Amino acid sequence: MDYRASTSLKVSAQFLYRAYLSCHALEARKPRLLSALQCSESELRDPGCQLGDDSIANLCAATQEELNRSDVHSAISQHMIPRGFSDLGFSAFFQPSFGEALLQLVAEQRLGGDTPIVKLMPLSSGDRLVWSHDKAVSPDLAHIVFGLVYHCGELLADGRFKTVKAVHFAHPRPEGFRGFPDANSNGPPIPCHFNRPSTYLEYHHLAMTRPIQSYNPAILSATRRQGRFFARARFEQENLAKLTYEYLLYLLDKSGLSLDAAALTFGMAERTLRRKLVAEGISYRQLLEQVRRDTCHLYFLEGTRNLSEIAAKLGYSELSAFTRAYSSWYGHPPSRDTGATIALAA
Fold first, then answer.
1. Which of 102, 174, 299, 321 has its CA 20 to 30 A from that of 61?
2. Residue 182: pLDDT over 80
3. How far apart, in whole angstroms, are the C-alpha atoms of residue 153 and residue 193?
4. Alpha-carbon dihedral of residues 318, 254, 265, 223, nearest 10 degrees?
5. Cα separation of 250 and 256, whole Å?
6. Per-residue pLDDT, 57
7. Over the stretch 233-270, which tens digit does the pLDDT of each residue have?
C-alpha cells in the first residue's frame, strides 16, 4: 500500500536535513536522495524553509529503494539522536523530568508550525504521548518521530526505569514493518498495534515523572534566551543577521559554514549577503564568532566534554584554532577554565 500522499503538515527544513544526513549515513547516495526531495542540499540548510511531510515519505521511499530494505524508519531516527547543541532537541536532555524532556524534544523539531504535534495524557495505568496535531500525517513521519522519541528516551532513562510499554498507530500496518523500534534493537520487542483510533506511545506507570540526571537549569535558561531571539527574527521582515545566526548555529559541526555556502542558501551573491549584514551592523565573520562563543559557553556549562570534542563541535578543524579563538574571547586559553562553570553572557 502506498502511504506517500501529500498532507498539509509542515516540516522544518532543518528536521528534513538531519533526516537526509541520517539516510546518507545509512549509505544511501546523496544525489538519489536530493532527486527524491526535488531540492538542493543548500535549500535544506535554510532555517526559514518549511516543506510538506510528503518530503519525508519521498526520502524514506528513496532510502528503502537504495538500501533494498523495507523498513528504515528506526535506523533513520537513531542517526537523528541529538548529540550536541547544533542538533534540534539537544537542550531537552537537560530538562528536570522525563516527560518534560520528551515534550521539549518533539517541540524543538519544529513540526506542524506553532501547533504542538504531541500532548501528554496522564492516566493511572501509564501516561500516553499522543499525536495531537489536527492535520493528517504520513506514517513515515510518525514512525521516525516516535522512533526518535523512543531512542532519546532510552538514553534519558539510562536503564534506571522502563519507558515505552506499547505503541499504537492510527494507520494500517506498513508492508515490511519489522517492529518498534525495529527487530535489530536490543531488548524484548515492544507491542505494536495498528488501525487504532489515535496514534500514541504508551509509557510505563510513573515514567514521565522520573527526574533527569543531567538536569541543568543554567543551560535551559540560556537556550530559552536563544529561542526568544529566533522567535523575534521570524516576525521581522529585515533581520538577516538573526537568520544567519540560526543558520550557523545548526551547522557548526556540519558543512556549510563558509560565506559562499550561506549566500547560496539565501539565494544571493556573496557580496550581497556581506553588504546586507554590514548594513545591519555586523559582518559574517563576527556572526560566526558570536555563534561559536555562545555555543562554547553551553558546552562548558554541560561540563562533560574535553577540549578536542568541544573544538570539533564548534566547527574548528584543529584544537589550536579553537585555543586561539578562545584566548581572543577571554584573554586566556580554554585549559584554564576546563571543568569550571562559566555563566552565559546576557
1. 102
2. no
3. 20
4. -100
5. 10
6. 93
7. 555 556 899 999 999 999 999 989 999 999 999 999 99
Task: Sheet with 192-193: list strands edge to edge.
Answer: 118-121, 128-131, 200-203, 164-168, 192-193
Q: Distance between CA atoms of 257 and 265, rounded to whole angstroms?
A: 11
Read off the pLDDT of each residue in 101-121 and give the average, rounded to a whole number: 90
Query: What whole-number distance in Å separates Cα of residue 264 and Cα of residue 211?
Result: 44
Which residues pair with residue 12 across a beta bridge? 50
The x, y and z cell numbers of residue 99, run together, are: 516527560
Provide the H-helix boundaries in the chain. Answer: 13-25, 30-37, 41-44, 54-67, 73-79, 98-107, 139-157, 217-235, 240-249, 259-265, 270-279, 284-302, 307-313, 319-330
Question: DSSP code of 257?
Answer: -
Q: Could you give the CA distance from residue 36 to residue 51 in angstroms, rounded to a whole number?
A: 13
Distance CA 310, CA 322 (A): 9
Instruction: Kindly report the three-state secondary structure assignment for every residue of 70-129.
Output: CCCHHHHHHHCCCCCCCCCCHHHHHCCEHHHHHHHHHHCCCECCCCCCEEEECCCCCCEE
Question: Which of 151, 132, 197 is closest to 22 using CA atoms?
Answer: 151
Distance between CA atoms of residues 77 and 167, nearest Å: 16
Q: Specify the DSSP class assigned to residue 316.
A: -
CA–CA dist 299, 341 (Å, integer)? 10
Report CA-CA distances (Å) from 335 to 142, 193, 311, 315. Answer: 44, 53, 12, 18
CB 153 within 8 A of CB 163: yes
Question: Can you give the pTM of this predicted structure?
Answer: 0.91
What's residue 2's pLDDT? 35
Query: Locate cell 506498513: which residue?
Result: 174
Question: For residue 185, what are the β-bridge partners?
Answer: none
CA nearest to 84, candidates 259, 256, 301: 301
User: Is the alpha carbon torsion for 242, 227, 143, 19 positive or negative?
Assistant: positive
